[in-house]
Write a structure and sequence with these properties.
The protein is an alpha/beta fold. It folds into two domains: about 325 residues, TIM Barrel (Alpha-Beta Barrel); about 110 residues. It is about 40% helix and about 10% strand. The chain has 18 helices and 14 strands. The chain has an eight-stranded parallel beta sheet. It has a six-stranded mixed beta sheet with strand order 9-14-13-12-10-11, with no helix packed on it. The chain is elongated. The N and C termini lie far apart (about 70 Å). The model has no long low-confidence stretch (mean pLDDT about 95).
Length: about 475
Amino acid sequence: MSQSDRGLRRLAAGTLLVAFQGTTAPDWVLRELEAGLGGVTLFGFNVADPAQLSALTTALKAAGEPVISLDEEGGDVTRLAYHIGSPYPGNAALGAVDDVELTYRVYRAIGSELAACGVNLDMAPDADVNTADDNPVIGTRSFGNDAALVARHTVAALQGLQSVNVAACVKHFPGHGATRVDSHLAVPVVDVPLDVLRERELVPFHAAIKAGAKSVMTAHVAVPVITGDQPATLSAAALTELLRGELGYDGVVVTDALDMHAITKSVGLAGGAVRTLAAGSDLLCLGPLPTYDDVRQIIAEIVAAVGEGRLPLSRLEEAAARVADLRAWFGSGTAGAAEASVVGLDAARRAVTVTGATATLLNPLVIEIDTPPTIAVGDVPWGLALPSAETVRVKPSDADAEELLERAAGRSLVVVVKDAHRYEESRTLVSRLVAARADTTVIEMGLPIWRPESAAYIATYGAARANAQAAVELLTA
């Protein structure tokens, strides 16, 4: 391979954020980092504890200058606490409190933990305005359904992260909040006029750009008025004309995971990589599925696209320059001291709301109505963990309401749901239990959109460990 070929391969590899299985870095990742690989995206299966994560990031940094990224939103989407649940509530809880200083403190604490473990880019905050109640992928990840509220908390969150030299990645541009399809599975569509997009979806992104967001993540969402039927990730009209041109953004553009079906089932992984680079992306998050063979094929396809004139060399050089600027920023400051994670519990306590009177607990039976995890969240544990209670988790389709009521006879009954508004079987089961037991306490650990007509009702605005603890404190006070 000639020097120019090696230089082109280095530029191509420099656009990629790869993933790998396990809690130590494979040899191929270390080799590719030495050869110019852009960096890595870590997932829950890469994280055992802070000491292990620190050792992993140290090994990665010894091999190159990687961007080390993960999704740490707090709340339901956590990688640091994937196995136990986050000590921080997510955005829905912070939006419900609506104290931007609190949001700043929570995200500064998250950023401090990430910095201490060697992570330099957090794929957060979520800046989507969640206007679709039945949105299957955003929900409690959003600060709310009001554009101005989402904007001010997005700014507070990114400033909290960046105050400790962890780059924020504001997502998902140009907006995933009005969708009813999960982009992991298909291409969602936000079919609204341009004036609605400017007054709603784009407001938080505009605010984030003015506040100095170091990176912005693309959405695999089609916005017909801008992108036609293709997702924004592949659209120059979205990334170059709208984001760069109209909104004036000059930082790093990161793609959402390219292994999602919105890309792989339409243009393919390697084809999607070339097309998103041509559209204006700088760093390509590949997601957890691609193998080393896939990574090599993607690099080869990018190199071939430059040679064939499908992708300008100047586009790769521009991406490399932006990422180099980001790396320089990583080293420009010092991480602040970590704020004790008690700030997360404080935030969760302030978010929780109670409607109706909760009774003193007597030998309580807690019925947790199972809710399937979303792909973005993964299989993070959730539930009430009420001390001295018997807890059963049931699938609503299999549950026998009469048997459960018999089991609860003479005892306090607590029913825990998560996004009941999205699951008819869950609502039916809750309604049957409450109809028979008016003294039931219902705890909603998702968005509090549906509630039974009677019964005490506690809304936590999220299912993180901190949210659960706040609810337990209310029940046992």
